[in-house]
Write a structure and sequence with these properties.
Strand content: under 5%
Number of strands: 0
CATH architecture: Up-down Bundle
CATH class: Mainly Alpha
Mean pLDDT: 91
Structural class: mainly alpha
CATH superfamily: AhpD-like
Helix content: 55-70%
Length: 162
């Protein structure tokens, strides 16, 4: 497998995506929850690179193998909290927005666990991973090339490949 294009071919666009990702990382949302959101959206979109990246990052943040493996069937397991379930349902609705949109019932459910500011941050996080999925799929970034940053180091390049 070979990549088609490096996003860095357009440095301004790449910087804009990185800034959005940095906003998401600093938004105050639980970082492990963010990884679950990223994995779930990437499963739906079929983004192998992002699945590889975010399962590695989730493990590094202490996420269990059991929950990672069960994420595709989260509704059928007792492994996720009500807050996580609301965020995962919101992730699915936004990722598949052309299918079902976001119902009032789902928005009310999400509102039980997240403040308006947190919902806005969830929305941006979900939109961002969907954008990264589309970029990675379209450019054919090679899965398996991502290495998580050493703990306590911040990587500013979420699509950095080695």
């Amino acid at each position: 497998m070979q990549a088609r294009l490096e996003l860095s071919a357009n440095p301004a666009a790449y910087r804009a995506m990185l800034q959005l990702e940095q906003y998401v990382q600093g938004s105050g949302l639980n970082l492990t929850l963010l990884e679950l959101i990223k994995i779930r959206a990437s499963q739906i979109n079929g983004c192998a690179f992002c699945l590889d990246m975010h399962t590695k990052d989730a493990r590094q943040r202490g996420e269990t193998e059991q929950r990672i493996y069960a994420l595709n069937g989260w509704r059928e397991t007792p492994f996720f909290t009500p807050t996580e379930r609301a965020a995962l349902a919101f992730t699915e609705a936004l990722t598949l927005i052309a299918t079902d949109h976001v119902s009032d019932a789902l928005y009310q459910e999400v509102s039980q666990y997240f403040s308006p500011e947190q919902i806005a941050n969830l929305l941006i996080a979900i939109v961002t991973i969907n954008a990264w999925n589309r970029i990675a799929i379209a450019t054919r970034i090679v899965p398996g090339t991502y290495e998580p940053p050493v703990p306590n180091q911040q990587s500013s390049e979420p699509l950095a490949v080695k």
